[in-house]
Design a protein that fits this description.
single chain; 98 residues; mainly beta; four-stranded antiparallel β-sheet; three-stranded antiparallel β-sheet; 7 strands; globular; WD repeat domain 54; WDR54_beta_prop
Length: 98
């Protein structure tokens, strides 16, 4: 059943890409983490169950050799048995953040 929840504002807009939202729910901490892409950066947001944003940060792709910064194409949370990774993909390759 659909239930309308409270909106959570981002500091900047999200890029118009398909599959541009990654969600990680941590029931033990009662938090939900969101990740969206916007150009050369990824917006990460942590929210409480009521939809109240607790923390926001912006990640940029590591600069490589080239004229312009690489554009991020996807952000995804990968839950492994002993660790959670945040994986960023761009046209220059894959980067992971712990």
């Amino acid at each position: 059943m659909f239930r309308r929840e409270r909106s959570i504002p981002l500091r900047s807009s999200a890029a118009a890409l398909s599959n541009n939202l990654s969600v990680l729910q941590l029931p033990a901490r009662d938090l939900t983490h969101f990740g969206v892409v916007h150009g050369p950066s990824a917006q990460l947001l942590s929210a409480a169950p009521e939809g109240v944003p607790l923390a926001q940060r912006q990640l940029h792709v590591k600069e490589g050799a080239g004229v312009s910064p690489p554009l991020i194409t996807q952000v995804h949370w990968c839950v492994l048995p002993f660790r959670v990774l945040l994986v960023l993909t761009s046209h220059r390759g894959i980067q992971n953040r712990v």
